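Hey, can you fold this?
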Amino acid sequence: MLSEGLFYDTVRQTLWIAVITSVPILTVALVAGLAVGLFQALTSIQEMTLTFVPKLLAIVLVFWISMGFMTQTLVSFFTTTIVPLISGGF
């Protein structure tokens, strides 16, 4: 039987892992969006693809670079936390 405290601790750890793995991509999307917005405001260019393409390229690049970190973090979390809970060895 799973205790309430163990359940909430696992949920807290899961949310923290989600934050850690999403921060690099969200940060790059924010910075790229601000840079493109500033460029558009300075040059008065209002092209819709100008906002989409640079952000998409930056997000894909950072995702590709940080994929190893994300995979290692998730695998470590599953092998040390989730698998023992499923097998009953908590």
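Oh, and this one too while you're at it.
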Amino acid sequence: MWVLDALESGPASLAQLVRLTGLARPTAHRLAVALERHRMVTRDAQGRFVLGPRLGELSIATGDDRLLAIAQPVLVQLRDLTGESTQLYRRKGDVRVCVAAAERASGLRDTVPVGSELPMTAGSAAQILLAWEDADLIRAGLQSAHFSATTLAQVRRRRWAQSVGEREQGVASTSAAVNGPGGRVVAAVSVSGPIERLTRSPGRLHAQAVLSAAERISEGLRAQEN
């Protein structure tokens, strides 16, 4: 638990884990590697330890995570409304993790399994999860991103994002922000599918539906706070 608690605030090197947990270096390393084997912990591009995808999967299985409990039926409704696959993403360090999804039942679709880690440098969900960060994090995130500061300014203004072939060739998506306590962006709701159906302007087709879904999840979180 000490290692997981330490990683809640973001990525950490082994040296940082030692400092945060107060454990001896060999003990911290042994625990972190053991958690990594069980996918409770993983590594980012810099080799730092970050919380792993298994935690999100367990949250869904146990129903303990309020966000996922609220979001799952909304994702199903959004899938049925748009006819496309839907996902919920959270940021974990340098990646975004798919923590919930509702897949299109048949035909050509964009399948993102729960627990998948995708880059924060491409895709409409990445734009959402970066757009409201502080200025230093935005500047750092844009250094290798497929989108620009102008794109993020547009996202903040209209509150939805779109991408066409950014993350994967032939795939388009539209995303909107889920807001938690204090208005902080805690997740991104997405609709994704082949460009042939979503076109090169996926926001024109699905932005309103995605915005409505994100607002329903945000309202659910606010209701549970009261």
